[in-house]
What does this fold into?
Amino acid sequence: MPMYEYRTPTQSPYLTDPVLYGGQTQGGPLGLPGYAGGFGVQVQSPEDRIFGGSISAMKGDAFIGTSRDGKTNGAEAKITGASMTGRIGRETDPAMVSATGTLLEAGARAKADDKTATVGANATLAEISGYGQVSSLGNSSHDSVVGLGGSLGISAGTNWSAHYGDEDGDGYREYGFTAGIKALGGLELTYKSEDPLGDVARTVPGASWLLGDTNVTHGVGNAISDAGSAIGGAWNSLWGGGDDKKEAPAAAPEPAQESEPDLGPMP
Ligand SMILES: [Ca+2]
It folds into this structure.
C-alpha cells in the first residue's frame, strides 16, 4: 500500500492521527483499490478503556474506494474545525453514555465495513450532543442494544446505518439500524439485536417462555443456508458431478442381476 504519512512521534498509548497523509489504498470487505488523504490532529483513547474520548482540531479526511486503514469500502469526505468527545462505558458494557461538542463540521458518506453500512450527510456550525445506550451483549444468544441520541445547535443532517457486526464476538451477529435526523437539534435511534425475529416473536404473550434461549433469527438463517446447500446439491447432481457419474454405472447392473433369478423358477 503506497501511502505517504507524516506522523508525529509519540510514546503515549493514545492514538494520535498524522498531521498529513495520502495515497493509494486497497482492502475493505470488497477488496477495492482506492485513494485516501487527510490532514489535522486527533488524539483518541483506546476503545477498550471504560473512560474514553477524543479531541480533533483542523482535521480533514477523504477516501474513495478503500479507506486509509483498509477496513472500509465506499466514499467519505469530512472536515472538522474542532470537536471534543467524552465517553463513559464501552460498546459491549451494559450501559454507555457520551457527550460531544462540535464547532464547524461538514461531511458526507456512503460506506460499509464488516460491521456497519452508512449513508448520510451533515453540516454543523456549533452543536452539543449526547448519546446513551443499554446493552445485554455478551450474556446470551439473543442479546440486544438500544441507544438514543440527541443534539442541539446550529446544525442539520441525516445519517442512516445498517448493522450486521458481531461486537461481542459470540458467533451471533447483531442485526439492526441507526436512524438519525436533525435540524437545529434532532434525534438518533439505534436498535441492534442478535435475534430481531425472536424480539418480534417475544412481544406475543407467552412466546418468551416458549422460545426460552432459542435464537430464531440464527435458526432461520441456518434454514436458508441449508436450503441453499440442498438446491446447490440438487443442481450439481442434475448436471452430474464426477462422483455421481461413477455411482450411476455401479448401481445400474444390480436390477439386471436380480431379474435373472426371478426368471429361473418360471419354466
Ligand atoms: Ca454477537
Notes: The chain has three domains: 1-88, 92-97+113-214, 218-250. The pocket of calcium ion is lined by residues 166, 168, 170, 172, 174, 194 (CB under 6 Å). The longest strand covers residues 116-135.
